[in-house]
Specification:
heterodimer; A: mainly alpha; 18 helices; B: Non-ribosomal Peptide Synthetase Peptidyl Carrier Protein, Chain A; 3 helices; 51% helix
């Protein structure tokens, strides 16, 4: 299986593809990369290639159809076809069982007993990412923000480009398609940044995320378990929440960096998906730094249309004043957006609660911002020295708590762990010596390195330092790698979405 | 002073916006990070106050409020409509 970027098998796939790509004639490069990308996906499960092909074929035809048609009704119908196809596939594979189970529970509430068996469905890897990507293509053409491509190879490659196929970044066609179409030259490839992104992403996954997962599994149980543990002390839960925050950040941002690094080697620039999220000033700022491409997608295609549409509805007629209507509209649109965001991760009540928790956090951020924006304290040195670190501190802890919804196996585990967090904390357990090596040292290293990037506002800051400083950095990485690397670690967490 | 310039100055003066000289009149305010949806509410209030116009909810759309140029066009339309009244 080639799909795990951090395993040796992937290098056996990458090396011939990279060499072949730059060796074949320029006009056949995209075709070569398309075949390689299909082979990459088929190495996981070729049977689900049908979903990829369906999404590709429908949106290719829909894009051309919308562009050629001048009738509003035809254009709308074609867009609906794209939405139904993509969301239909996503809904069937991802949410069928959730809806069936909810239906049984709902019937139970009204005193009916339904006997509907759950379906044995495997979620096609990457479906949540590529369906959103192809949808954005059709929507942008419908909005006349994008011209469709008539080149099927270019379009198919836009859907299936292997570095970002499985877990993003979710690219918009207006950013990626022009790059795929443009002629590329080996001499223009930015190998330095590409290799750095791939190598550092690999480090985050193999050296930090996978080993720290042991602490998480001790409390929550392994991710594959159907039932989570309940008999766990509050201290262990607390530790596991911080460990999971570290794990998921290094796992997902590590994957995203590797994807960008790989794309860079093919002369393609992918969007940045993470930018120092734990240095954010609150929840609003956080989602401009965490899974940026999903936030942007939902913002552009769900939140903003709702935000402008709702004030015009009859429902909002009772609210007087544009300002008040817009505030209520923002509140409702944000609520819908956050529930969509939660459910995008998976079909369970936990993810709905996650969305609601983030929603409350975002409103707290908005209110704090409104209350303090004209304060004279805001731009002085005291603010910079105390308030900014405090904002990050609060954000880190809120994020860690939100992970309770994200990582728990069931709502019962969330409830039980909440109780234990309130009643069963022994701080001395947090100072266990094994945690220093497994968690605290990697976290301290990561924090120091990200602080450097934050202060210089440059994710490539390390590459601009003097020789001996860079040497110290690489030696630290190598030491961690020798002592901690877990190259046989599991799949990336976001592959399950 | 043109309406687009006045709107630009308004965005530069108000703390809710992250305006920079590199943002052109055609750039999307949301995509270029100048404003988010909450800042757009502030913008509506400022437009109403500065140009003495009334922004009706049904006139607001992603297209009309996307860039400085488009907003300026909308304000000009409102002002010429007001003059005719």
């Amino acid at each position: 299986m080639f799909v795990l970027f951090h395993q040796v098998e992937f290098l056996l796939f990458l090396a011939p593809v990279l060499v072949g790509y730059w060796m074949v004639p320029k006009r056949t490069r995209n075709f070569f990369l398309l075949i390689a990308s299909y082979a990459f996906y088929a190495s996981w499960n070729w049977k689900f290639g049908g979903c990829l092909l369906a999404s590709t074929a429908v949106d290719y035809c829909v894009g051309l159809g919308i562009h050629r048609s001048s009738q509003a009704r035809t254009r709308r119908r074609l867009l609906t076809l794209s939405i139904v196809t993509n969301l239909g596939m996503l809904g069937f594979f991802k949410y069928s069982n959730f809806f069936l189970e909810s239906l049984v529970e709902l019937a139970g509430v009204f005193g009916f007993s339904l006997d509907i068996p759950t379906l044995n469905i495997i979620l096609p890897i990457g479906i949540s990412f590529y369906t959103f990507q192809t949808l954005s293509y059709s929507i942008d053409i419908y909005r006349r923000k994008l011209e469709p491509t008539s080149n099927l190879v270019d379009f198919a490659l836009f859907v299936v480009f292997f570095p970002q196929l499985i877990a993003g970044p979710i690219e918009k066609a207006r950013d990626l398609l022009p790059q795929l179409r443009a002629p590329k030259f080996l001499k223009d490839v930015d190998w330095k940044h590409g290799l750095y992104l791939f190598g550092y992403g690999w480090f985050l996954k193999v050296v930090i995320a996978d080993p720290v997962g042991v602490v998480v599994n001790e409390a929550f149980g392994p991710p594959s378990a159907t039932v989570g543990k309940l008999e766990v002390s509050g201290s262990r839960v607390l530790m596991a929440l911080y460990a999971y925050s570290l794990q998921i950040y290094c796992d997902f941002s590590g994957y995203s960096k590797m994807a960008r690094g790989l794309a860079c080697m093919f002369g393609i620039r992918l969007s940045r998906n993470f930018y120092l999220p734990f240095f954010s000033r609150g929840y609003i700022d956080f989602y401009k730094r965490w899974h940026i491409t999903l936030s942007n997608w939902i913002g552009e295609y769900v939140y903003m249309p709702l935000y402008y549409y709702l004030p015009r509805t009859r429902l909002f007629g009772a609210i007087t004043g544009t300002k008040a209507r817009l505030y209520v509209s923002a509140a409702v649109a944000l609520l819908v957006t956050r529930i969509v965001f939660g459910l995008w991760h998976g079909a369970s009540v936990n993810f709905v609660l996650l969305g609601l928790f983030i929603y409350c956090g975002q409103w707290a951020s908005v209110l704090a911002n409104q209350l303090t924006k004209n304060s004279s304290l805001r731009n002085n040195a005291v603010h910079a020295a105390i308030a900014r670190p405090l904002q990050s501190f609060v954000m880190i802890h809120m994020f860690a708590f939100a992970m309770l919804f994200f990582r728990s196996h069931s709502i019962e585990q969330v409830e039980e762990f909440c109780k234990r967090l309130l009643t069963d904390i022994d701080l001395s357990e947090l100072l266990r010596s094994d945690l220093i090596w497994s968690m605290y040292l990697p976290a301290a290293f990561l924090f120091s390195y990200e602080l450097l990037q934050y202060r210089r506002d440059d994710e490539f800051a390390i590459l601009k330092l003097s020789g001996y400083r860079q040497l110290a950095f690489w030696l630290t990485l190598a030491t961690f790698w020798i002592l901690r690397a877990d190259p046989g670690g599991g799949a990336f967490i976001y592959f399950q979405f | 002073m043109s309406i687009a310039v006045q709107i630009r100055e308004m965005l530069e003066a108000e703390k809710d916006f992250k305006m920079s000289p590199s943002v052109s009149d055609d750039d999307s305010l949301i995509e270029s990070g100048v404003a988010d949806s909450f800042a757009m509410i502030t913008l509506v209030v400022l437009l109403e106050k500065t140009f003495s116009i009334k922004v009706e909810p049904e006139e607001m759309s992603q297209d009309v409020f996307s860039s400085i140029g488009r907003i300026a066009g909308y304000v000009e339309g409102k002002l010429s409509g007001n003059d005719r009244d």
